[in-house]
């Protein structure tokens, strides 16, 4: 089992690491930076500037975004970082790879980039040139960071094809432990780079997304095997976060139980105003779960009543429900505290 920098680089690329920054001001917190690390669930448009088939830069993506145009978000409208930014009081976000992001816009908007945490260091050097080393260190120390880890390592790696290389290398429980050990290194590296408030989200109910139903479910039930992976992974992620907080002697890392947040409306969509949590709004094939969302796909007339926008990604409204639990959820959803509590505590320091 290989480990070290090469493995961490592979993991970083695998999850599509992105970094985002937005200066925000809100009643509960003074101006602060907002950084986001994650996969397509939190991408605000870097795919527009990459040679990749994973793109969201054409209709009907963005159909409900304020501009009514595709932005690179894998959503009909806003994603989770957008909703968090709104609650922080920040403006609309820009992808790091956008040519519009330069100069003072590094401070006033968002920075996102793929690949490894070394690029986060590069970002800090860019900001240092604008505001100096001491102010940059303070900006990063006081920042809010969101990191989404795990989902792609299962869906697009371990379970990508039958008898994948990873599934031949690891039994599922061993693979989960391996990922947890790698993500522990990743979070420790974030701490070394100055992170002091980090929201960590694990996987959602991966076996219940329309793409998995279309490929693995003959009866419309969630894939038991992929759900087992989520059930093993998420509690161990929360446990690891608690251990790191004990190690550092502070609540640096906050676990967001997005699996439970999404499971609530997947199991009982009508209670949340959805007509279905099985069929994607945009797609084709069983459950609209096959292929890409394009202008040729089936498209629902009312996106607000669908829990999933495309085969893999929640709708804007579902993203809003998840964000509300991040903000105000009890310890079933947020451990050891929710985001509103974090902002209130930080406003007093």
UniProtKB/TrEMBL annotation:
Q: Which CDD domains match?
A: SGNH_plant_lipase_like (cd01837)
Gene Ontology annotations of biological process type:
lipid catabolic process
- Any idea which UniProt keywords this protein has? Hydrolase, Lipid degradation, Lipid metabolism, Signal
Q: Which Gene3D superfamilies did the record assign?
A: SGNH hydrolase (3.40.50.1110)
Q: Which residues form the signal peptide?
A: 1-20
Spell out the molecular function terms from Gene Ontology: hydrolase activity, acting on ester bonds
The family note in this entry says:
Belongs to the 'GDSL' lipolytic enzyme family.
Protein name, as recorded = GDSL esterase/lipase
């Amino acid at each position: 089992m290989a480990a070290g920098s090469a493995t961490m680089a592979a993991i970083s690329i695998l999850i599509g690491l992105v970094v985002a920054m937005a200066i925000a001001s809100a009643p509960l917190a003074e101006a602060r930076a907002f950084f986001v690390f994650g996969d397509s669930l939190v991408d605000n448009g870097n795919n527009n500037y990459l040679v990749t088939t994973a793109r969201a830069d054409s209709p009907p993506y963005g159909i409900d975004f304020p501009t009514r145009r595709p932005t690179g978000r894998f959503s009909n409208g806003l994603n989770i970082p957008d909703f968090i930014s709104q609650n922080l009081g920040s403006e609309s976000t820009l992808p790091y790879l956008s040519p519009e992001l330069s100069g003072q816009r590094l401070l006033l908007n968002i920075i996102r980039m793929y690949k490894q945490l070394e690029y986060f260091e590069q970002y800090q050097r860019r900001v240092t040139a604008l505001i100096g080393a001491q102010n940059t260190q303070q900006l990063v120390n006081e920042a809010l960071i969101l990191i989404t880890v795990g989902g792609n390592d299962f869906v697009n790696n371990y379970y990508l094809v039958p008898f994948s290389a990873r599934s031949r290398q690891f039994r599922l429980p061993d693979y989960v432990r391996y990922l947890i050990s790698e993500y522990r290194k990743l979070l420790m590296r974030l701490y070394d780079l100055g992170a002091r408030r980090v929201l960590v989200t694990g996987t959602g109910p991966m076996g219940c997304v329309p793409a998995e139903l279309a490929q693995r479910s003959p009866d419309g039930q969630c894939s038991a095997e992929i759900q087992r992976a989520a059930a093993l992974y998420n509690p161990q992620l929360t446990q690891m976060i608690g251990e790191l907080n004990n190690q550092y002697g502070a609540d640096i890392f906050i676990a967001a139980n997005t699996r439970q947040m999404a499971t609530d409306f997947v199991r009982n969509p009508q209670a949340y105003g959805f007509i279905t949590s099985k069929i994607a709004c945009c797609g084709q094939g069983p459950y609209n779960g096959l292929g890409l969302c394009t202008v040729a796909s089936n498209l629902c007339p009312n996106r607000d009543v669908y829990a999933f926008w495309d085969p893999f990604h929640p709708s804007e409204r579902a993203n809003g429900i998840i964000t509300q639990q991040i903000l105000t959820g009890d310890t079933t959803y947020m451990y050891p505290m929710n985001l509103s509590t974090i902002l209130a505590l930080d406003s007093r320091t």
